[in-house]
Amino acid sequence: xxxxxxxxxxxALRRLRPSGALAGVVPFFAYTxxxxxxxxxxxxxxxxxxxxxxFTLGNLEGLTSPSVVRGLVQSLVLSAVTSLGGAVIGGLLAxxxxxxxxxxxxxxxxxxxxxxxxxFGGVALAFAFIASFGSTxxxxxxxxxxxxxxxxxxxxxxxxxxxxxxxxYFQIPLMLxxxxxxxxxxxxxxxxxxxxxGGTTWxxxxxxxxxxxxxxxxxxxxxxxxxxxxxxxxAKALVSQGSPxxxxxxxxxxxxxxxxxxxxxxxAMALAMVVVVAVAMAxxxxxxxxxxxxxxx
Length: 297
Fold this sequence. Notes:
mainly alpha
């Protein structure tokens, strides 16, 4: 009995003792707290405070102003178009890459290249497009010499033309990286079984591959949507007239004069963005869990 009583507290203390794995994730939790949790709390709390730190709903009422609604709608349109375009083109490229031999130079080259291009954004990407497609850009001048006119080049600075092209530059490779594991999860036995039962290639894609890949495809599209919706630096470097997108409007509230009583309107707009991103990422997590269940079968 004494030995049992002594062993019980010893086992409890052993379970409470911090493990090496827990110590390894402490820096991650510290980073997440400082750069994600605390800023989110600042935005959520500040959205309901006025300039004197008193509770108010005036900031949320400011979200109904025409300029804010227009910026939110245009941001949603830009994100939706570039995410769908990037998902379709990137998905086709992912399938093409998946057909290459495992470990081949071609496959390693494209995956490495897309890994770099997916992270290439901000001011550097905007400058690259200006130097290439601007009014005096390299490609604009070269095409002009052979009689192909690309216009004045001002289309590059519009949110509904230039920004969409620039966003697709990093959306397509990001889709390839995210969607490639799902495409590679398709087993050759499934196609062979379809052909054995008399099915065609169209039957295989319509009744076997498409239902399996659909959750992963939609989830990756949602990930691309949030990536475009929260982008700021590239749009700021290209769009200099007005603030047609909600991230640019938020930046303007912190860098320029604001109307008295709307000091925290930017935080209210940021809260609206947080809600949109949270909904999209919740759907992405649910679809990713569902697709993982399919691939494990």
